[in-house]
Amino acid sequence: MSEKVVLAYSGGLDTSVAIGWIKEETGKGVIAVAADVGQGGEDMDSIQKRALACGAEESIVLDLKNEFAEEYCLPALKANALYMDRYPLVSALSRPLIAKHMVDAAKKYSANTVSHGCTGKGNDQVRFEVSFAALNSDLAVYAPVRDSAMTRDKAIAFAEENNLPIDVTKKSPYSIDQNVWGRAVETGFLEDIWNGPIEDIYAYTQAPDTSKPADEVLIKFEAGKPTHIDGEKVSMLQAIEIMNERAGAQGIGRIDMVEDRLVGIKSREVYEAPGAIALITAHRELEGVTVEREVARFKRGVEQRWAELVYDGLWFSPLRKALDAFINEVQEPVTGEIRMKMHAGVAQVTGRKSANSLYSYNLATYDSEDTYDQSWAKGFIEIFGMTTKIASDRDRRL
Ligand code: ARG
Questions:
Q1: Which ligand 1 atom is nearest residue 176's CA?
Q2: What is the pLDDT of residue 171?
């Protein structure tokens, strides 16, 4: 077989079946690419072997954990990125990175087609395919689940007929996607939006528990990047991993929401992102101390736009790049330390320290050291409120 397809391979039922399915449908050989973005669970060696056992010509496993943390999670942290004010973009951040490495593999193996196991109803198909097109517009895309109706039942039948080394009974009732930035759980009984999440679906967090002792953490940032936790130097990846552990033990970062997908559907999503939520909480607070008011106000709009763009699959867009230039500029003074108490589902900042602080004790205090001349305020308010006063007077007259 000379023509080849590069497949985003997870090791699960759908993409394992996809290997043989793609061969049958297209006559092309499959290069399976599995990415380690810190999802944990099964070891990557077994995943690599399974792809070969399912008929892949090549099976590649890539450790992308550091690249994901540095190049994708860190920009998201600097942007305090929360889609619809809540979702830290877990899956949305990983897809462009995986796509990038698939495009690299396509070049290396002279493949002309790339493939993924997404359905036609979600955001991930968009994120993959917009990224493929941005990186190499000559590549064709084939998505068997969407393009040739490879349904769950057909996939199970295919796995059984072909004796694929995959336990079809182990397939979870949920659709789960996870990486070091967090974990997404959908479908199953959660599709009834009145049903509350059960403890069973969580893996990164323990249930919030007031009877557990609180955990206090010190996080140092340099230009918006976490560099030390409790005095220990950390990489971005380590910072996320440590905070996943510690904030997760306190039940922080559980999110249950109905979300607006790009394809127009509202969907029920349960997330857990203890590290992401704890780090964003600390980072935001340090920005509050070190970023000038007008910049800070403007950045809030930028943050929302950034989150929407990335959610919508436009990671490789010129606007994301341009917004990142603004965000990085704003991060320059965001250096200092945050003390945070984590307890029973809540991350609460209790202290902040920075050589770049814009907080002035002498201006803020009501004590004798006060250097603020209160007589300035009277004239300021007269002029500041003038247009509102004039317009209101007019409206009362009419
Ligand atoms: N709704 C989230 C998003 O669009 C999570 C998607 C998770 N993907 C999955 N295959 N379960 O980013």
A1: 11
A2: 72
- What's the token pair of residue 37? 């973005």
Tokens 């736009």 appear where? 305
Please give the Cα distance from 306 to 85 (Å, whole number): 12
Q: Is residue 135 a contact partner of residue 316, using CB atoms and an 8 Å limit?
A: yes
pTM of the model: 0.97
- Quote the ligand 1 centre to 37 CA distance (angstroms): 15
Query: Active-site residue among 10, 14, 16, 352?
Result: 14
- Residue ID of nearest Cα to ligand 1 atom 1: 269
Please report the sign of the dihedral spanned by the C-alpha atoms of residue 40, residue 46, residue 51, residue 57: positive
For the chain, where are the alpha helices, taking DSSP H only?
A: 13-26, 44-53, 65-68, 74-78, 90-108, 124-135, 144-147, 152-161, 236-249, 274-290, 293-311, 318-331, 361-364, 375-384, 386-397
User: Contact 253/182 with Cβ under 8 angstroms?
Assistant: yes
Contact 394, 385 (CB under 8 A): no
User: Which domains are seen in the chain, by residue range?
Assistant: 4-171 (3.40.50.620), 176-291+333-353 (3.90.1260.10), 369-397 (no CATH)
- The one catalytic residue among 10, 94, 95, 352: 95
Provide CB contacts within 8 A for 349, sequence distance 6+.
281, 282, 285, 338, 339, 340
Separation of alpha carbons 85 and 366, rounded Å: 35
Low-confidence ranges of the chain (pLDDT < 70): 1
Q: Return all residues near 154 (Cβ < 8 A) that are at least 6 apart.
A: none
Give residue 336 CA to ligand 1 midpoint distance, Å.
34
Read off the pLDDT of residues 28-62 as tens digits, 9 standing for 90 and up.
Answer: 999 999 999 999 999 999 999 999 999 999 999 99
Pairing of strands 4-8, 29-36: parallel
Burial class of residue 305, CB neighbours in 10 A (0-12, 13-18, 19+): middle
Q: What is the pLDDT of residues 255-310, one digit of tens each?
A: 999 999 999 999 999 999 999 999 999 999 999 999 999 999 999 999 999 999 99
3-state helix, strand, coil in the chain (%, to 5): 45, 20, 35
Q: How far apart are CA 217 and CA 225, in angstroms?
A: 16
Give the phi and the psi of residue 202 in degrees, each rounded to 5.
-90, 140
91 lines ligand 1 (CB under 6 A): yes
Point out which residues pair with 259 in neighbouring strands.
267
